[in-house]
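Objective 1b of the project was to move from sequence-level analysis to a structural picture of ligand recognition. The entry below was assembled by the postdoctoral researcher (A.K.) and checked by the PI before modelling. It contains the amino acid sequence of the target and the SMILES of the bound compound, nicotinamide-adenine-dinucleotide.
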Amino acid sequence: MRVWGAVQYVNEEGGPEVESDFVTRTALVTGGASGIGAAMARQFVAAGGRCVIGDVQDERGRALARELGPGCRYEHLDVTDEDDMRAAIDRTVDAFGALDCFFGNAGIVGALGPIERTPAPAWDRTVSVLLRSAFLGVKHAVPVMRSQGSGAIVCTASVASLRGGLGPHAYTAAKHGVWGLVRSVAAEIGAYGLRINCVAPGGTVSALSASLVSGDGDDLDAAYRRLAAASSSGRPTTADDVASAALFLAGPGAARINGACLAVDGGDDLVAHKARGYFEADGSER
Ligand SMILES: NC(=O)c1ccc[n+]([C@@H]2O[C@H](COP(=O)([O-])OP(=O)(O)OC[C@H]3O[C@@H](n4cnc5c(N)ncnc54)[C@H](O)[C@@H]3O)[C@@H](O)[C@H]2O)c1
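Corresponding predicted holo structure:
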């Protein structure tokens, strides 16, 4: 049986039961042509794994797959389409023999504006790309992983999964749904030896944040500057920061982590960093 898990386990003969490297490991990364997904594809392949990038940006996705070499390939995948999702998972298994990791990451900002002026079709499109996509990926990844007896799913949630006001209404509602899905499915699939978790990035330098900051998805410098200024640490979260966390959750070091939501934001969501004056005081009491 293929096992992606506890590296310390010693079997009856006293030998290690499992491998701990990524050499034979395969991932499907949705939204892998850009940003966090592209960083995950790069890190996964650099760690010795094999990766299928699924995206709707065919040119970018193909270029990245070419750059990463024979351990990587590109598949056109609209994450809102169930047939596409099923086919991308099947092609991952056909190409590389297994699906050890599904990284459900594709996303958009979606509908903006006050609730009373949020058009229902824009709401539906947003929820479809962010939440229906996670459902479809998990739905079709689980049976494959169950038959393998191993596998780890990671979804990209957001700090907007944790509280209001950190994104537009539809985005926030959908991202809360992603974490709800992760918790619900974790309660089922632990029994099959599988795991599902999510990363919750704060403002991250990518085309998505750049398009919000400057209207130009290619202006990553503008996104970097704006997010750095808003961060307590003086630097923004990068796509690589989020990919590292996702890689950890997908890997053997996270063998006992199931149903978790790991914030990747330098602590900005959990600390009221505008109150830093408290920590700069001289130790006196008031
Ligand atoms: N950048 C941030 O500040 C931030 C913060 C929190 C969460 N996130 C989440 O991170 C994830 C990745 O976003 P990113 O920041 O890397 O942005 P990005 O724009 O660089 O990447 C998103 C990718 O998703 C793809 N995509 C969009 N719709 C798709 C569809 N229907 N089918 C397949 N692919 C589709 C895009 O083509 C793109 O390649 C998203 O889920 C986003 O909500 C981003």
